[in-house]
Amino acid sequence: MMIHYASVEEMKPPAYQLAELEQRSSHAVVTEDGVRISFDLYHRVGRQAVVIICPGFFQTKEAAIFQRLAHDLAKDQDVLCMDFRGHGRSGGFYTFSAREGADLEAVLEWARGRYSEISILGFSLGGAIAINTAARFPDSIHSLIAVS
């Protein structure tokens, strides 16, 4: 029996090639209670529509599944993939939905200044936070998808 020990390089998620002219950049906003929220923007010049991806509890925008989803969705619109507080590259501590709405609101405010059409795609607890945020700001959100 042969045992294979994977190297660190083999364990890394696959890198996804950005489409021609597509740019990926990292950004941050600060919530009303002073927490730094990190997000990545998959962008092409001239687009007016964006979808905000909201991962769930113990999920991060750095996960291969969200990077691939963002890359695939970016073929048709800009994509903003965020980390809630206490996750990934965002600051603060996770509050089990007590304050995470402020995280999405800060990201939504950033997007409102740049896009005429904003959609939200939320997973698990990120979906619940997205539903609550959409209920508070119905005129700001074009569409909402809550998964699981």
Contiguous uncertain segments of 5+ residues: 4-13
Largest sheet: 6 strands, mixed
Shape: globular
In round numbers, the mean pLDDT is: 89
How many individual β-strands? 6
Instruction: Please give the count of helices.
Output: 4
Question: How much strand?
Answer: 25-35%
In N-to-C order, the SSE pattern is: HEEEHEHEHE
Sequence of strands across the biggest β-sheet = 1-2-4-3-5-6
Helix content class: 25-40%
Mind telling me the C-alpha Rg? Answer: 16 Å
End-to-end separation in angstroms reads 41 Å
Structural class designation: alpha/beta
| Assembly level | single chain
Describe this structure in words.
The protein has 148 residues and is an alpha/beta fold. The chain is 26% helix and 26% strand. It is built from four helices and six strands; from the N terminus they run αβββαβαβαβ. The chain has helices at 8-11, 64-73, 100-112, 125-136, and strands at residues 23-30, 36-43, 49-54, 78-82, 117-123, 143-147. It has a six-stranded mixed sheet, sandwiched between helices. It is globular, with a radius of gyration of 16 Å.
